[in-house]
Design goal:
The complex is a heterodimer of chains A (993) and B (490). In chain A, 28% of the residues lie in helices and 19% in strands. With 993 residues, chain A is α/β, with parallel strands linked by helices. In chain A, strands 5-4-16-15-14-6-7 form a 7-stranded mixed sheet, with helices on both faces. Chain A has a 6-stranded mixed sheet with strand order 22-24-23-26-20-25. In chain A, strands 11-10-9-12 form a 4-stranded parallel sheet. The two termini of chain A are 47 Å apart. The relative contact order of chain A is 0.12. In chain B, 50% of the residues are buried. In chain B, 69% of the residues lie in helices and 0% in strands. Chain B has a single domain, classed as Formate dehydrogenase/DMSO reductase fold. Chain B is built from 18 helices and no strands. Chain B is an all-alpha fold. Chain B is globular, with a radius of gyration of 24 Å. Classes of the chains: A alpha/beta (993), B mainly alpha (490). At the A-B interface, β30, α27, α28 and β34 of A face α7, α8 and α13 of B.
Chain lengths: 993, 490
């Protein structure tokens, strides 16, 4: 689908403007944007008080007059020579990379006329395979964040680049004494090389790596086990039995794309059911991995290490007696069955440990994997990074002792996210000169001496290392909108005195020195492909030292098992807080809790009862001497006496979207209880705070009403593998209904293309990627917290999550639901103006222009997938935010209905292409299966969604629909949905039945 | 009844079928008492009342302007409750309108003479209720500026296409607009002789206006003949409309796939409900009007009692319908259907359901007792209660079915905003304003028809006591509390 084009901004010759962004970068335009959109309401329409309404009205009248006499001066610059391969209005794809917490993922960026609009996975990248996750995709919206920092700040006030350069020159770095750099985790080889040269030039300077989402455990565990830094690469696809020790590898705990892909491959069954893997998990919170698991044992996060030691004991790799916790029957049974199952599958059994777990748990996992000959590859890690938590602790101590006079903060927001006990914000104030590089004017930017606008990853050159060592070059798609600098450029500017650093040269020069052979050619190939060929780290076979692990296990502090435990998780939506001003992510429901626009303390049902708490009650949570007041929500399946807190919310200095959304979990996160803190207390604080969720009812079982017994609705259909073998057609036979016949002759739908979709519930992990992909592809607006609470969110595809089983220890399932494109669509016959009609290709088309908004179609939609523009959701959108829109898709006005179209714009584009090809080559029109993908299908890391022509018997979708697990949800209504589901299977251990 | 034994003593038939005009009225008396209402000096109370109702109407227009300016989001409608108070109010007002046509047309064809005193105001009420109702189908759309003409029966000029004639909303447009047109015609035709009466009594500008409005009526035998024929034809046309309008309104729900809506019982159930609420509303208004305008001799307790009987019967019909819905839900074996009804009675909206049951099924049973049926305060309170109940019936059908349908992931709850509430109150203001204007400027009782009844009363059928005794020059108002046949001197 992609024609990769190289982009080299350093080409000699006349300077053509590449993008609107370059134009927009002109100071006049920026001044106008600032004037036009100073501040503004975060939500499309917050029902304010009468006074507010009057104020806003008065202001709008005033501004109406102002804008009338302030038309922007527009300059039209034609491209005097055409850019090769560029067709205006046609998307181009460039390879690049996006880094999160020191791990790079290869991406392809869709750009229209020099304007990046969507991030896809790079199919050449070994950890992407063409898929991405929600956060990576949403980062394109950060580029167009209207609240991005636009100019350098001096002591919180607007300054200029000139003043910054003067200020930097005046620093007087000497031999580096008193100079400290605090960077995010460095995974960029060019920045790493720059660091080495800086430290050589200023030998006394210090460079500290820290990020709020940085885990000391895995590397320390590798050091403990192998005595060297090692990247662990589990091969989930080759494992038959997998045990996760508190590791949400399908969710937020890892760059989940590759694990999801491999896991789904190991779980997927074709016509025969033998191949399906089995997943056990031991965890505290209820993660996506826990929802997918066949067996789940809940326990406090701090107790998992005891479990790991017991397991090691059972394998005979550690001595007995290390465990001090009592065993419940359930735990013993679970452990025995697990050990037997793992041993029975030697060579195809795998134990993985979660990053929150201490070193010893990781080491034990390595040890057992060794004993099991598990499908794991190890790769040498470039250098063992120091424990980031210890590093920032030391840095703070240095600052407080007066040893640091110049502090350079390269990205991140430590004033907000550093451990609360360090009081890092105060420490910044003690430094003579602090320079902060950041995308937003955030908490740190406000207090630093200098704040430097950072270039977004789509605006600057760079590089990054993926988990397997593969290097991707990051190339800019657009000139920096606000003249921001990348980290490497700022370092060059400060330490090399380069007033006008060129990131492109810095990165290229580094790689020209590294690349073998025809350097220019290799460089261009690397940019084009998105990966540096042969850069993946070589596999090594390190040997684990049982001796060292034994010693460490013996000295590992025992969990008390008493009191309340708090564990912290990067939010699946805001991550560490960097997405706080990103509307897509704020409105993207948390995969398990379905909370949007905020966070809450999550407690198990029993703990809620014990503490006499109800949903939305405010509690005072005290941990390690710090306290925080926030609302609680019940999370079925959580460990008892444990609190699950999501990081990244409660930002104060962030912009119009994220300001004051949620509660700041960093306030109770200390260096001692960095990921898990014991001895917390939870007290009712009085009062309530309404947490908004997109899904009010969580079970398919009907609520308990005085009459009528609860029935389970056959919506998500699930069976064990044994039941499936007995009756492969269980899903279809779950519902009895009369013959589905119509009074009227039905349309045959037997010609041309007939589009259909099949969703394999056995593969879907509920990771949210499809939601954001759809949002980006289809220009779906966000509505704000209050509107979500009124049930007005706009997502065209949603992930329904249901619990089954007991409230304390349930299983969970997720189900993507988009428009089913019913052949016999109930929405169509009720529309009085025929605004929704059927296409001959089986699509349920929406004619937005025709819609008058009676909402009858939505009432009559049994799947409730239609979305109504209750208000003008685009009212307060700024010019710069409009740049993210997909030009192929209409932006819908208020008062009309919208819904999933199966990405009709992609269908049309592809049809035009293949028809043109057919005419050119004088051949029949043929659509190759897989060359047309919907946005949700394209990003799905689990390949759970297949789409295509169902009349083509060779297409994957047609084959999936032929599988016996295939069922149509609510088929009994005779609506004939084109989207069907493949029933979910679980593979429980018969011994644990 | 001891105090009134004289009436009972006279003739048993009079007890059963008391006279419809009391106080021994002559033709002139009737003309005088009806016409004088619009001819006299406007009472201060009228000004006070209309200033209140007109203010509320202005609030309605303000709310509608706010709605159009901002979108449906200013209401509480949400996903999955895409329809809420808007369609509730629409069905409520359309239902109210039903009594007018029923009284005018069906009772006319069945020669129910007791309709004469109340048909004019009931028809006016129909028109005003339909006016209130028609606000909602238009303004509840997301883009009313388009809906206003794209729903009309013309091919759309922009897209060159016709409407979707399969949509019940399209049928609604035709049903309601036909109903409004025919009701207006019927009402106007009935008004013509009375407008001429007013014309003959008026001077100056009033005379000129009534001159035009009365279409040259001279009261000739030929006029009367044509008039009677036109009236009969219109009554014939209107009669099916009484059944069709609410039947079609009920199709909005019945043709959907939604459990709780998808039921074949809806057409008769809705029609009965409409008559039920319509009569209750006529009752409310007439109790006030006959008291305020001194029309107790024309709108007698017999009229009121008859209406109470209709309320009792239709109340039972809707009660039976509620029960049938539950039975069918159980009998069908459809789990979604069963859930909707159990959820209706015991779920989050149980309060609304039991309000509906108390008001519509329990409260009309007081009318089993003749004493209560003839008590003005009791019937006034009950008429209000029934209207509250019928509003809730529509709310229960719409909101409880929508808020929890097939997929539990998409369940929700509806709460009205102040705009919802003020819009509804606003329509009540509009309704009352129109009614007050009607009372002030037009004959609120069909003078010519009452005279016809008077004539019959003077020459009743065989077996009735001589008419001369009925005629009594002295008018005695009817005591309010009890006594049906207070007419003296039998």
């Amino acid at each position: 689908m992609s024609k990769l084009v190289q982009l080299n901004p350093n080409q000699p010759g006349p300077k053509y403007w590449r993008s609107l962004g370059e134009l927009y970068n002109k100071p006049e335009f920026r001044a106008w944007v600032d004037q036009e959109f100073a501040g503004g309401a975060a939500e499309a329409m917050d029902h304010g008080s009468r006074r507010t309404v009057l104020k806003v009205m008065a202001a709008s009248f005033g501004l109406a007059g102002l804008t009338a006499c302030r038309r922007p001066e527009e300059k039209i610059l034609p491209l005097s020579r055409g850019v090769e391969g560029q067709i205006p209005g046609k998307a181009e794809y460039y390879a690049s990379q996006v880094t999160f917490s020191g791990v790079s993922t290869g991406v392809l960026v869709e750009t229209y006329d020099g304007r990046p609009t969507k991030i896809e996975g790079n199919d050449k990248h070994p950890t992407s395979f063409g898929a991405t996750n929600a956060l990576t995709q949403a980062s394109v919206l950060n580029l167009y964040d209207p609240d991005r920092s636009k100019t350098p700040l001096n002591k919180g006030r607007d300054s200029s680049w000139k003043a910054l350069q003067d200020g930097v020159k005046a620093l007087g770095l000497g031999d580096g004494t008193g100079v400290a750099v605090l960077s995010e985790l460095v995974n960029s080889p060019s920045l790493d090389a720059m660091r080495k040269s800086v430290l050589a030039k200023y030998p006394k300077a210090k460079w500290v790596e820290w990020e709020p989402v940085a885990y000391p455990g895995p590397q320390a565990g590798a050091m403990l086990a192998f005595g060297q830094a090692v990247e662990t690469l589990p091969q989930y696809d080759k494992a038959k039995v997998i045990l996760s020790l508190d590791y949400d590898f399908l969710g937020i705990d890892s760059p989940s794309i590759l694990p999801t892909k491999q896991f789904a491959d190991g779980r997927r069954i074709g016509e025969h059911a033998e191949s399906m893997n089995r997943l056990y998990i031991v965890e505290g919170q209820f993660s996506l991995t826990g929802a997918t698991a066949d067996h789940r044992l809940r326990m406090k996060v701090s107790e998992v290490k005891s479990f790991a030691m017991q397991l090691a004991e059972a394998f005979g790799v550690l001595p007995s007696g290390l465990n001090v916790l009592g065993n419940t029957d359930k735990k013993t049974k679970f452990l025995n069955a697990l050990v037997k199952d793992l041993k029975a599958n030697t060579g195809a059994a795998l134990v993985v440990a979660g990053p929150r777990q201490p070193a010893v748990v990781h080491a034990i996992a390595h040890l057992i994997n060794g004993a099991l000959n598990a499908p794991v590859t190890y790769a040498a890690s470039p250098a063992a990074a120091a424990d980031p938590v210890a590093a920032i602790k030391q840095l703070t101590a240095d600052i407080n002792s007066g040893a640091v006079s110049t502090l350079v903060i390269l990205g991140g927001n430590p004033a907000f996210s550093a451990p609360a006990d360090l009081r890092f914000a105060d420490a910044i104030g003690k430094v003579r000169t602090s320079i902060h590089l950041g995308l937003d004017v955030d908490e740190t930017a406000k207090i630093a001496t200098w704040h430097v606008p950072q270039a977004h990853a789509l605006e600057c050159w760079g590089d990054g290392r993926a988990i397997d060592g593969t290097i991707s070059i990051q190339q800019p798609m657009i000139a920096p909108l606000y003249g921001g600098k990348s980290a490497i450029e700022l370092v060059d500017m400060i330490f090399n005195g380069n007033a006008n650093p060129k990131g492109g040269d810095l990165v290229k020069n580094y790689w020209m020195a590294q690349l073998p052979g025809d350097k220019e050619n290799s460089w261009r190939t690397a940019i084009h492909d998105g990966i540096v060929a042969g850069s993946a780290a070589a596999a090594i076979k390190p040997a684990a030292s049982a001796e060292r692990i034994r010693a460490a296990a013996a000295s590992e502090p025992k969990p008390t098992g008493q009191g309340m435990e708090v564990s912290f998780y990067p939010s699946a939506t805001c991550y560490d807080g960097r997405f706080a001003n990103n509307g897509w992510m704020q409105e993207c429901p948390d995969p398990m809790t379905k909370i949007v626009w905020g966070n809450a303390a999550l407690l198990s049902p029993k703990t809620m009862r014990d503490k006499n708490l109800e949903n939305n009650d405010l509690i005072k949570l005290t941990v390690s001497g710090q306290s925080l007041t926030l609302p609680v929500m019940v999370q079925p399946g959580m460990a008892d006496n444990a609190v699950w807190l999501n990081l990244g919310y409660g930002r104060k200095e962030v912009g119009r979207v994220g300001e004051g959304v949620g509660f700041n979990a960093y306030a109770v996160r200390t260096t001692n209880g960095y990921w898990v803190a014991e001895g917390a207390s939870v007290e009712k604080d009085g009062g309530t705070f309404k947490v908004s969720t997109t899904q009010e009812w969580n079970s398919m079982t009907e609520p308990q009403l005085p009459i009528g017994t609860p029935k389970t609705r056959p919506i998500v259909r699930e069976a064990t593998i044994e039941e499936y073998k007995k009756n492969p057609k269980f899903a279809e036979e779950m519902v009895e209904h009369p013959p589905l016949e119509s009074l009227y002759p039905e349309w045959a739908y037997d010609k041309g293309f007939q589009w259909g979709m099949a969703i394999d519930l056995n593969a879907c992990t509920g990771c949210n990627s499809c939601i954001i992909a759809c949002q980006a592809e289809n220009n779906i607006p966000i509505v704000g917290k209050n509107e979500v609470m009124r049930g007005r969110e706009m997502h065209w595809i949603r992930l329904d999550r249901y619990y089954t089983g007991s409230e304390d220890d349930p299983q969970a399932v997720t189900q993507p639901v988009n428009c089913m494109q019913c052949e016999n669509a109930p929405c169509e016959n009720v529309c009085p103006v025929a605004a929704t009609v059927h296409s001959p290709e089986g699509l349920n088309d929406m004619a937005y222009n025709r819609c008058v908004g009676t909402r009858y179609c939505a009432n009559n939609c049994p799947y409730k997938v239609r979305r109504f523009n209750f208000l003008n959701w685009h009212k307060n959108i700024t010019e710069v935010e409009k740049m993210v829109h997909n030009p192929d898709v209409t932006v819908r006005m208020r008062g009309i209905m919208e819904k999933c179209t199966y990405c009709t714009q992609r269908i049309s584009r592809k049809k035009i292409e293949i028809k043109a090809d057919a005419r050119r080559e004088n051949k029949p029109v043929v659509l190759k299966d897989g060359e047309l993908q919907t946005a949700c299908q394209q990003v799905c890391p689990a390949d759970a969604i297949e789409f295509g022509n169902i009349l083509d018997p060779e297409s994957r979708v047609a084959k999936l629909k032929k599988q016996e697990r295939n069922y149509a949800m609510l088929a009994e209504l005779n609506v004939k949905p084109r989207t069907t589901y493949l029933a979910k299977l679980r593979n429980p251990n018969p011994e644990l039945a | 009844m001891a105090a009134h034994n004289n009436s009972a003593a006279n003739h048993p038939l009079l007890e059963v079928n008391p006279p419809l005009v009391l106080g021994g009225q002559s033709y002139h008396d009737v003309t005088e008492s009806v016409s004088s209402i619009s001819e006299g000096k406007t009472p201060k109370q009228w000004y006070i009342l209309i200033s209140i109702t007109a203010s509320i109407t202005v609030m309605l227009f303000g709310m509608l302007a706010y709605l159009v300016a901002n979108g449906i989001g200013v209401w509480g409608n949400n996903a999955p409750v895409y329809w809420a108070w808007d369609i509730t109010n629409f069905v409520f007002w359309i239902g109210i309108g039903h009594a007018g046509t029923l009284i005018s047309a069906i009772l006319f064809l069945f020669r129910q003479k007791w309709r004469t005193s109340i048909n004019r105001s009931a028809e006016a009420m129909t028109l005003f209720a339909v006016a209130c109702a028609m606000i909602f189908p238009l303004f509840h759309t997301g883009r009313p500026w388009r809906a206003a003409y794209w729903l009309g029966p013309t091919p759309n000029p922009d897209l060159v296409m016709w409407q979707n004639f399969r949509s019940p909303l399209m049928w609604d447009v035709f049903a309601v607009s036909t109903y409004a047109t025919v009701s207006a015609l019927f009402w106007y035709v009935g008004l013509v002789p009375d407008l001429a009466t007013l014309r003959d009594r008026a001077r100056g500008i009033r005379q000129r206006i009534f001159h035009i409005a009365s279409l040259g009526w001279r009261g000739s035998a030929r006029h009367w003949r044509n008039y009677e024929m036109a009236y009969l034809i219109l009554a014939g046309i209107s009669t099916p409309l009484v059944l069709s309008v609410h039947t079609i309104v009920s199709f909005d729900f019945a043709t959907s796939v939604l459990p709780g809506w998808h039921t074949t019982i809806f057409p008769p159930y809705f029609v009965a409900g409409a008559i039920f609420s319509g009569f209750a509303c006529v009752l409310t208004l007439l109790i006030i009007a006959r008291w305020a305008l001194n029309l107790e001799h024309l709108i007698t307790l017999k009229h009121l009692e008859n209406m109470n009987k209709v309320i009792l019967v239709t109340g039972w019909v809707v009660g039976l319908a509620y029960g049938t819905e539950f039975f069918i839900a159980w009998y069908s074996g459809n789990p979604y259907e069963q859930f909707v009804f159990i959820n209706r009675a015991f779920g989050p909206y149980a309060w609304a359901y039991w309000t509906m049951i108390s008001c519509n099924v329990i409260s009309p049973n007081f009318f089993w007792f003749k004493k209560l049926r003839n008590s003005i305060p009791v019937m006034f309170v009950l008429s209000l209660v029934v209207n509250v109940g019928m509003w809730f019936e529509r709310f229960v059908i719409i909101a409880t079915s929508l808020h929890r349908d097939f997929l539990p992931s998409s369940w929700g709850y509806f709460q009205p905003t102040y705009v919802d509430i003020c819009t509804f109150i606003g329509t009540i203001g509009l309704f009352l304003t129109l009614f007050l204007l009607f009372c002030r400027f037009l004959p609120i009782i069909a003078i010519s028809e009452v005279k016809g009844v008077l004539a019959e009363q003077r020459n009743p059928g065989p077996g009735v006591v001589a008419t001369s005794k009925v005629v009594d020059p002295k008018f005695e108002p009817v005591p309010v509390a009890v006594g049906t046949t207070e007419g003296s001197g039998h």
